[in-house]
Amino acid sequence: xxxxxxxxxxxLALLLSPVLVLGGAVLVVQDARDGWGxxxxxxxxxxxxxxxxxxxxxxxxxxxxxxxxxxxxxxSRPRAAASTPFAASTGQPGLPPVxxxxxxxxxxxxxxxxxVRFVGGGASSAAAVDRVGTGDDGSLGLPEDPRRxxxxxxxxxxxxxxxxxxxxxxxxxxxxxxxxxARMAALGRGDVVVLADGDRQxxxxxxxRYLLPRTRLSELTALxxxxxxxxxxxxxxxxxxxxxxxxxxxxxxxxxxxxx
Amino acid sequence: MRAHxxxxxxxxxxxxxxxxxxxxATAAEPAEVYLVQGVEGGVWSLSLDDEEIxxxxxxxxxxxxxxxxxxxxxxxxxxxxxxxxxxxxRVAAGESVDVVLHRPVDPTDDPLFTSxxxxxxxxxxxxxxxxxxxxxxxxxxxxxxxxxVLLADVASAEEISTTVxxxxxxxxxxxxxxxxxxxxxxxxxxxxxxxxTRVFAIGVASEGSMDAVVQVLRVPVVDAVVPRxxxxxxxxxxxSEPWGSPVGAPGLLLIGAAAVLAVVGLRNLRGPx
Lengths: 260, 273
Description:
The complex is a heterodimer of chains A (260) and B (273). Chain A is built from 2 helices and 14 strands; from the N terminus they run H-E-H-E-E-E-E-E-E-E-E-E-E-E-E-E. Chain A has 260 residues and is mainly beta. In chain A, the strands form 2 sheets. Chain A has an 8-stranded mixed beta barrel. The two termini of chain A are 24 Å apart. The relative contact order of chain B is 0.12. Chain B has 2 helices and 18 strands. The radius of gyration of chain B is 33 Å and the shape is elongated.
């Protein structure tokens, strides 16, 4: 049912995209100088396979759909019991212990990445990853050291089933020269980006790279969304450098899809 | 001044703790325990440390939260036919635990208790934690959403945890690495933001009695403010001045060329004389 809706949405997006382009209603125009990837129209967000509906209020009701199935799982309301703490004993000899449930696949638990590696064109390069957040001024804080990348703690974890894992890093630093993120410009379609933390790792395949005017970044909410398929979004600066403002005009965006 | 204020505040706080008799978190902090009746089609009397806490717990009933001091406790269940299950439950200080009475892999054996620790760590705004535990008589299973595997290969007495956006998920359960037939579902599962949603799969797959107990616990939420800007470049280094000046080498060349042109132009304007 949901996949049919997804197909419909994708079909609608396909039908609409030329209309949007002709009407000049493309949300973000790809920069022809450095970019390839899917057309970024507003319809794209709809193409993501999202949960059926938003959460609404109480869930403790049985809600059969007209067809009888599927039905909704009912939340059990715990029955309150004695309020005084039960004192511990030294244990009754001979009683079997209550066994603890095991984690099914500890290595597959989503994680906060501590390193990132670009693999492509026969070369491989890696950088350490720090946790970063959004500052009071609305801009993403980044590691000062351009050799390091930042993982946005507000986004998805590596290996999470849905949403964007967002990493960003400085293109360059006036005091320390080019950053690791400068290598993003060399990432091509099919190249692999590996996020890791100790033994755990997650691989992503590059699907798109494009320049985006920095002022348009906040319009592309899908880049930072918890919803939609599992993906990786790499961000740095690009475009024209304004020596007076000491800032770049654009963001360079690399998108990658999660590999199993 | 500020430091002084903070010292006074800390002092008052300490006094407050003492007066209220509320100790800071220590090893003596009780564990929070929920007893989950996960035997389908049965009514059980549940007891803890020889004290009956529910005389008639039907399937999918949850009793709690119960405060248990860290250490050893006796948990037991008796059904109408006199079948009895008793086990030693050990809990650690401050942890939150679900203790599930459920059927073993061999459904002809007596039920057993299995405990699962609740992960109450924070989640990001707009998301909830989903933990599915396999406490059913069923083969290792995949949990799917809309036909796509969300959580793969969960065996009996195992649990698996993930974080998902809030919403209603149409889920079904199939034997691991197969496309079916489904042993349960599809059913709509609601995941609320800022909550741990625990799903205990119960029942006997071969008898078509699969069901699920759903427990929802509140967890802290960390804000996830979407950045409006990613200022990720400061410009090229200034180390090679004057060629590395803000205008850059090509810029200086252009200025130079413009100056030459301007001089030539002015001469031409003046004319040969």
